[in-house]
Amino acid sequence: MGMSDSHVHLHAFADPDGLLARARKAGVSLMVGVGVDLATSRQTIDIARCQPDVFAAVGLHPAYLTHDVDLDRALDEIEALAREPRVGFVGEIGIDLVDGTATLERQSAAFEAQLRLAIRFRLAVNLHIQGAFDEVFDVIRRVGLPKPGAVIHYFVGDETLARRALDLGLYLSVGKPVTREHNDQLRRVVTTVPLQRLLLETDSYPLPGRRTEPADVARVAEAVASLKRLPVEDVTEATTANLVKLLGERFLLPPRASVHMTGSGNG
Fold first, then answer.
1. What is the pTM of this model?
2. Distance from CA of residue 168 to its chain's centroid?
3. DSSP state for residue 13 in the 8-state scheme
């Protein structure tokens, strides 16, 4: 199937078509576009609706739970968006005690509600966690995980944290930090994580001086293959198969299959 990028913010780019074309040329055959609030979740669905190799993740990112967000209304709208056929994940969701400004109580409530939604809809979960692994893991132990599973995106933790996540049944997704030799801790982790529990990503979004895009997932695959002493084809095949497994039944649905009912205004 080729390579996959399990986490890219396609909505943030002025030319997503060009971005996708370059990714395909590089051998990327499957991507998950990730929303962070209502507006970007809608935009991501719009892209996924007409792109056969793109699926959407919809959710309320913990760092975007500002005081002006009506949480009950926003959660109702996320539930409506999650019914769209091209949505394969609820995410990115979680708890962020580093960049998040909302209280832990508010973040936890939003996370738990969206986790329960994913369980109900049998959708995989894309987890954003900063400074709150104990809190997130406690919610998961209490509430459970959706049948397809859940992935910690952009994992950069140590071996102990990786083992805790794997013991909970989570997948780990790694990005460009694994390509940098000074990230010794992360690179050691990658050598120990079973290939069947690993995903690749770029977490692409435009920033001044930043040029990361989905085509760059090839560098991540090459780094993982080198660390694991495996052919790069083995890594790309396994990590893409893992993403397909997480997408579950939604992976089989064709593009242009959904009818957009909620509009595309700001949330």
1. 0.93
2. 18
3. -
| Domains of the chain, CATH where assigned | 3-252 (3.20.20.140)
Q: What is the pLDDT of residues 238-257, one digit of tens each?
A: 999 999 999 998 887 766 54
Give residue 210's pLDDT.
82
SS3 26: coil
Q: How many CA atoms lie within 13 A of 142 on its CB side?
A: 11
Give the CA distances from residue 89 to residues 27, 122, 182, in Å, rounded to whole numbers and listed in that order: 23, 9, 32
For the cut 70, the answer to whether the pLDDT of residue 261 exceeds it is no
The residue count for the chain: 267
**Sequence-distant (≥ 6) Cβ neighbours of residue 131 within 8 angstroms:** 96, 97, 98
**Helix spans in 26-103 (H):** 38-49, 71-82
* Strand ranges across the sheet with 54-58: 3-8, 28-34, 54-58, 87-96, 124-130, 150-152, 171-174, 198-200
C-alpha 23/C-alpha 207 separation (Å) is 19
CA angle 214, 217, 220 (to 5 degrees): 155
